[in-house]
Description:
There is one protein chain. The chain is mostly helical and 225 residues long. It has one domain. The protein is built from eleven helices and no strands. The chain has helices at 3-8, 16-31, 47-67, 70-83, 94-112, 118-127, 130-139, 146-158, 169-178, 188-205, 211-224. The longest helix has 21 residues, at 47-67. It is globular. The two termini are 24 Å apart. This is DUF479 domain-containing protein. It comes from Mucilaginibacter limnophilus.
Amino acid sequence: MNFLSHYYFDCHTTDCYFVLGTVLPDLLKNADKNIILHPEKLQHTDKHVNSIIEGWKKHLEVDRYFHSSGFFLHHSHQLKLALTPVIQGSPVKPFFLGHIAIELILDNLLLTTGRVSADEFYDHLVSCEKSVVQEFLTFSGLEDTQIFFRFFESFKKDRYLHTYVDTHQIAYALKRICMRVWRNPFTVQQEVDIDEVLIAYRKAVYNDFMQVFTIIETEIAGSRV
């Protein structure tokens, strides 16, 4: 799941460090795909660092249920089929596009239906003290934290998740993600065609997209019993 979809499950919490933890695995991946941390079993003396760890664990749990859900498996496959003919000649693999596209569509739908607030999400991140985040990262084994903090400060300043309210921005966000791996992933015409596919697919899942969030919440509640 993408940032706002992860945030949905804990959007009513007042603990900014827990919220940060729920999206930190993806933030680190965006900052540098070579960063690999496994703090899941760690315990710190600082309660705020532990909140980040608990949020991190929630992220892994949500992703596990999401990626094994019938919703994700069905819609990522259908998007792969729909996108395959429009990206002929592109180096991007259709299954990769299908995977990322459904996640971006979910973020867009959460925003446009008012189920999450991008401003509130960013407010949580801004509230986190850098010293606490620094302690979490070094405690988890990251020696050079400068790359992450450069990205993190830019992420908070740019607030680009606000653009997801524009359905056309789903295709642009998808292109940005692909550009981390491929310099020129799509032609201009392919970008237009991808946009049309995603807009149509968003409309198709509009009425039942919340089912996947309900399923995950049920799975999480069941695991707590």
